[in-house]
Design brief:
Helices cover about 65% and strands about 0% of the residues. Helix 3 packs across helix 4 (about 75-90). The relative contact order is 0.21. It has one domain (about 5-95). It has helices at about 5-25, 40-45, 50-65, 75-90. The chain contains four helices and no strands.
Length: about 100
């Protein structure tokens, strides 16, 4: 059975990955530290087998690349990013989202 996340949990995962992506873009290398996820999310992620984990994060990275361009530093960018993540996640990550 595939673990199911709320849309808010998906947003948290993607926003954390955006921060990681931004760091890579700015400094040219990936951080040695693992991306931090709150315990309830991390617990769900740890239940994935290797194949499920890789598939999930491949799809997450697809969304990260799509929404990263919205990160402009403007005050209301967060709402725009969350809205775009929700739309993309409902399409790309549909099987991982609690309905």
């Amino acid at each position: 059975m595939i673990n199911k996340f709320t849309i808010n949990e998906i947003i948290i995962i993607i926003m954390a990955m955006i921060e990681e992506f931004e760091s890579k873009e700015m400094f040219g290398y990936e951080s040695e530290e693992e991306v931090y996820f709150p315990k309830p999310i991390n617990d769900k992620l740890e239940e994935f087998n290797t194949e499920e984990y890789e598939e999930f994060f491949c799809k997450v990275e697809e969304i990260v690349e799509d929404v990263y361009s919205l990160k402009s530093g403007e005050l209301n960018e967060l709402n725009a990013i969350h809205e775009e993540i929700s739309m993309l996640a409902n399409d790309i990550l549909k099987k991982y989202i609690i309905e």
